[in-house]
Amino acid sequence: MSAHLFEFRTIKGEALALAQFEGRAVLVVNTASRCGLTPQYRELQGLWERYRTRGLVVIGVPSNDFGAQEPGTEAEILEFCEVNYDVDFPLTAKEAVLGEDAHPFYKWIVEIAGEDAAPRWNFHKYLIGPDGELVNVYASRISPLDESLVKEIEALLGA
Asked: pTM to 2 decimals?
């Protein structure tokens, strides 16, 4: 099974099939607007700006699963991200990332990588390879600009 089999809905309500990113590296991150880690939006945007022309896709998945730190509507979330962090990478609709109600992508992550791979907090990161396979999991506190993550992205992009 591949990540390319999953589909999200964008924050504006359009289909966002991961299959369209076949051949590209994808970083999927569950996000929240009222978290101590929220400034990572700036770093995610920086990654997106630096590597998108080389094939990286960054996808933010707003979730209210941790500390109720994403209570807003999708319109409020989008405005917050654009106004405060100039985010223009794809954002999905607000999704559950834990438990029975978790989006199927997150259930798949746990199925293939175990419970330890489930998000533990906001800004948990999943790096998906061009073939749709899970490459690595990065904990919330690991910066999107962390050297090990950037090196892995560059390796996937053929840098």
From this structure: 0.97
